[in-house]
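HUMAN:
Could you generate one sequence with tokenized structure?
ASSISTANT:
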Amino acid sequence: MDKIKLLEDYKKQEDKMLLSQILDKMEMSERKGSVEVTDFLDMYQNALVEKFLKKIKFDNVKLWGGYEEAERKICIFSQENLENTDYSKELQIIRIKLQESDKGKYSHRNYLGGIVKVGIKREKVGDIIVFDDGADIIVKNEISEGLVKELKGLNRFENAEFQILDISELRRKEVQKEEISIIVPSLRLDNIVSDLARTSRNKAVEILKQERVFVNGQNETKPSKNVKLQDVITIRGKGRFVIKEFSGTTRSGRTVVIVEKFV
């Protein structure tokens, strides 16, 4: 396998490094006949890896984050049919249960901040699902015990209860949505992002350049891309949205778009 040739189309050094690691995992799985997994990949990395694997026509792989809608996923390689491979043991849940007096006080930032504070790399941790009474944190099984020990030493969690659970016991949070409407001069992505992020069009273009926008799970940087009905648009730091309806035009020719916002 000529890695240099496979990676020569990729300009960004971090993309080349990630895809080189992916190729290493593939080769190790082939050589040893073993199941090999990566650390957690974020949405941009997932899209990059998925497109790369399709390009090289490698099928015996699964991107998985513990549940179907997970944003952060590990990449699993196996020489056997993955449907017959038990990869569930690769991930576990750290469940944090807060005391009554602390319920409703902690956000995603509080939990992630604690993880970073104790020196755990972000790529070792998947989605953090927050509830009023605590959180379910998806982690690679290799760090679960050590992370619990470290988190117990933080003041913010000194009265909390901790459990390490099988990934099958993950609590799912009911998704809440609200319907909003925006009025845009055209269906170009930069116009849509500008209204959804409540910022200027120039700033929306910057957000696109920063690779913070995903359309149907794929990173998108092209401002002129037209959005379509049922497109799922994720803007890092701003939220997730579904294009539900084009409900007409104004007298000035602007389009009214009905959007479902995840809250």
